[in-house]
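Dear U.,

For the methods section draft, I wanted the exact inputs and outputs in one place so we can describe them consistently. I've listed the two proteins in the order they'll appear in the manuscript figures. Please don't edit the token lines directly; just add comments below if something needs changing.

First protein:
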Amino acid sequence: MSQPLLTVTDLACQYGEYRAVNGVSFTLEEGRIACLLGPSGCGKTTTLRAVAGLEPIQAGRIHIGGEEVARPGYQLAPERRRLGMVFQEHALFPHLTVAENVAFALRRETAEQRRERVAQCLRRVRLEGLDQRYPHELSGGQQQRVALARSLAPRPRLLLLDEPFASLDLDLRRALAEELGDILRQEQVAALMVTHDQEEAFLLADQVGVMQAGTLAQWDSPHRIYHAPSSRFVAEFAGYGTFLRGTVTNEGTVSTVLGELRDGPLPWPAGTEVDVLLRPDDLLPDPQGVLLTVEKSLFTGPTVLHRLRLPDGGTLLCQTSGREPPAGPGEMMPVTMAPTALVAFPLEDN
């Protein structure tokens, strides 16, 4: 089995008495894309900066390509780690043209090699014909493409991205995130990105790490992060979802006001109270289902997101097709549960 490109082991970073990162471990394979996802202040940017060599570490080890680049008391200089960096602020040189910005890290190449590599990188990011423009003559999205091309130009073994699309509008962010994945795979470059946007992470990454208060709550595929979260925190942070109270029965099912759920042997004894995770697409309109009151309906075009009120006052989300007119507040909607898997958390774990 090949050695991972990046290995982070029991990483800890501290500012005075405050431990921003504590015991974080994960690996990233060659050519793979990973995202660190989490709320502000969870330690994801500090972890990225430690990998880049911009933050000293107080515990643990970091290896890149099998080489130890950081341990307590030792830190390989960032420029010797063969990394590329893309920041939220673009950080382009305003007095240099697009081509000169991209060529900045190619000073060891011949003039002909620089021209060929600059042209190749600009084609990758679809900026052909803009090589002689200056940054102030470009849109925000074009500036971020230049920053990406400049980072890819010296052929780094690992690209680090810190909230690269945060300053862009929503539609442009989604488009660039999708394109970035294609570009990185064409260049065969592994990447580690920081974001607080779960949709961005799911769209781009092969692996997602959800961070909570300086720790890594779960490192997994986007599909498992969404459908098999390891904790209530991951379930709530990574995607829309609501919880339905249930009780484990003697028959090994979970009984709820919407019916019973079964998904193989349950790890809890009969009588255990649990919260069952239901994503919006886990509830389906069903004429034979349980009638719930519509509190609010949000029409997005392709879909309608309904907030439904339970008899105990709680609410659930139900997503339906946008082909039908949205239900109005106070209307009754019959629904049934159809989760792909039973995901529940005992109340004592909350």
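Second protein (the one for the lower panel):
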Amino acid sequence: MFSFFKKKPPAPVVPTPEAAAAPASAPPVPSAEATEAKRSWLRNPFANKASAAPAVEPAPEASTLPVAASPLTSAPEPTAKPERQGWMDKLKAGLRKTGSSIATVFTGTKIDEALYEELEEALLLADTGVKATQWLLDDLKRRVKDSKTTDPAAVKALLADALTELLTPLEKPLVIGQHTPTVIMVAGVNGAGKTTSIGKLTKHLALEGASVLLAAADTFRAAAREQLGVWADRNLVEIVSQEGGDPAAVSFDAVTAGKARGKDVVLVDTAGRLPTQLHLMEELKKIKRVVTKADGTAPHEVLLVIDGNTGQNALAQVRAFDDALQLTGLIVTKLDGTAKGGVLAAIAQERPVPVYFIGVGEKLEDLETFNAREFAQALLS
């Protein structure tokens, strides 16, 4: 739980003789349900971004939670997130390249085997993968039979339901606050948008009121340290870096500094690499081991950033990095520049690592939490 969400105890009140003589009236007491709902939200502020924090019955003299300063800097107050409908509009536009070929299948006049064959081809071209495509077709045929649907346009809605069911296991919130600091290791191949995604994730965390420390452990790529430094300046957060330093040593120093400074989150930017570069993959394992030496419970999250443009290759990356690091979550970027957005279905079917965030643009607000229903509807809109 974030320290700046804790409520300060009220100062003791000494009753005057007049007050003592007056009849006492009991202040309103929050219900058990409201109190538990508030605690649940504070434990996991990412769990339901579409709704605000649960309402809590007001205390006698205060209706808002005080904000305490962090050890070094004042914690920023959480600001309102962009409207979810605005995000849906961006998501629909971003997935248009993938969804247009699938949507055209349902413009016919009847439901027959030809329709299913066209749909199969469209799903495979969207890099949904053979296993996920077969699962979707079988499930769709069952839904059509159960609903006795005769309109091809209605079949598209049933496909959205089937896709939502397939993708739902990937829908999991990123939990911050169970550990202080929460250490997040971020990996990914060069060009996937790893460092940019770290900058966007830092912005998300800051909007939730978390204090963040960045670790520039990507000493393999030229100018990576400088690029992360730019994101640190934009988000007004601290950064630990060493010119030409050992990535594992930088990571160790950052986790140690995060603990000493009372940071909520330490984000470790690791070197981009291909899973075929075995010596570099071993270095990633070393970073993870060293982070554990700095904090016996860390890393608490191991994220992989994948480029949606790479289609089935993204699934191969998930397999390789998961085998090496035991991934806890994914960030999928650049879905607006590809016709291969169906790869999320392939991941759900073959290696269901949770998708924490998806991106459809370069702006800070173009990275949002993944929602299976929203994704399916946007893809088939």
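Candidate sentences for the figure legend, describing the second protein: Confidence is low (pLDDT under 50) at residues 1-30, 34-80. Residues 99 and 380 are 5 Å apart (CA to CA).

Thanks,
Y.
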